[in-house]
Amino acid sequence: GAFPQKRGLGLVVQTQMSKKGRVFSGARPTGRQHLGNYLGAIKNYVALQADYDCVYCIVDLHAMTTLEDLSQIKANTAEMALDWLAAGLRPEETILFVQSHVPQVTELHTILSMFTPLGKLTDLPTFKDKVRLQPHNINYGLVGYPVLMTADITLYKADVVPVGVDQQSHLEFAREVVRTFHHRTGRQVLVEPQMKNTEFPKVLGTDGKRKMGKSENNHIELALTPEETEQMVRTMVTDPQRARRDDPGDPEVCNVFTLHKSFSSSEDITMIDRECRTAGIGCVDCKKLLARNLNEHLQPFRERRAELAKDPQHVWEVLHDGARRASAIAAETIAEVKAAAGLP
Ligand code: ADP
């Protein structure tokens, strides 16, 4: 399977291998993760651990800019951390923590905001999108979102940030803020983060049309039971041209086939590609096979998740331990930044 075998948590492994640098990435606490999160982010997070020192942050402060209901942040944080750990993030080498547990990020955010032209922030397409999406809640934090993101990245001295196309403008923005800070203070104390351009697949939801996402209610969670998974897969929309069992289908336009490509063997993929086009296999059987392969693929993840879920306190200990390690880096950066900025 793609998921690593069970291993003990909490042991401290000194990584002696020299890695290529430090990666930072953050994600808002959205609770139980779905196949889109897995293929589009988590899988990459796990893989990056081989080559980089990784710092992965659950950005609860960022989440506050868009949430109406704040009561779910804590539970969502724990659920997401469970999924990350079960999927193979290794807290003994990777720093895994909650953004608000290291308060220096808000301090750096304030300092960097003084080096950020307001017009740049309000011109960003992502800000304009948010204004359209939540016209009733255009809060101050929403405008400063990219500055907080810059603070996240630079506080932990990240060399590299993995970004897809939609995040490129934010990273370019972060690099500009760093350059402005260096230019105005005359001190090169921050690390200007490099973009690691990554092809992130866009996973469509069960409707076969829109991006898989919680808000679209078209998502399949990793932590479902095998039966629930089969039930969700059964609801998936297939090639709309294929109305009857005898109609030949076009796998290229079918999201069930797309998921087969991520979770099934090459033999199964070849077979479905052929048999769908000739109506040799119907959508019902094709979905049954997908559900079976998904369940098989996710079984080690689910076992590990169930084991971790037995001890909720342990997950918080992992996150607090991550925050302690993150704080050590943060304390250094903040001292250097304040000195550079001439603060007494
Ligand atoms: P965030 O606002 O932190 O990006 P999301 O839950 O929307 O929160 O996404 C978390 C991560 O999962 C992001 O890297 C995002 O690109 C990825 N992701 C979410 N949905 C999908 C999807 N349907 N296809 C591919 N990647 C996705």
Task: Based on the model shown, name its key terms.
single chain, 3-stranded parallel sheet, two-stranded parallel sheet, 13 helices, 5 strands
How would you characterize this protein structure?
The chain has 344 residues and is mainly alpha-helical. It is built from 13 helices and five strands. Strands 1-2-3 form a three-stranded parallel β-sheet. A two-stranded parallel sheet has the order 4-5. β1, α1 (35-48) and β2 form a beta-alpha-beta unit. The longest helix has 29 residues, at 312-340. The chain starts with 21 loop residues before the first strand and ends with a helix. 36% of the residues are buried. Residues 4-16 have low confidence and may be disordered. The structure holds adenosine-5'-diphosphate.
Weakly predicted, low-confidence segments: 4-16
Number of strands: 5
Following the backbone from N to C, one meets helices and strands in this order, namely EHEHHEHHHHEHEHHHHH
- Could you estimate the helical fraction of the residues in percent? 40-55%
Major sheet: size, sense and barrel closure? 3 strands, parallel
Overall pLDDT: 94
Percentage of residues in DSSP E strands: 5-15%
Given helix and strand content, the structural type is: mainly alpha
The unique ligands bound to this protein are: adenosine-5'-diphosphate
C-alpha geometry: elongated
Q: For the record, give the distance between the C-alpha atoms at the N and C termini, rounded to a whole number.
A: 55 Å
Query: Strand order of the main beta sheet, please?
Result: 1-2-3
Counting H and I runs of at least 4 residues, what is the number of helices?
Answer: 13
Radius of gyration: 22 Å
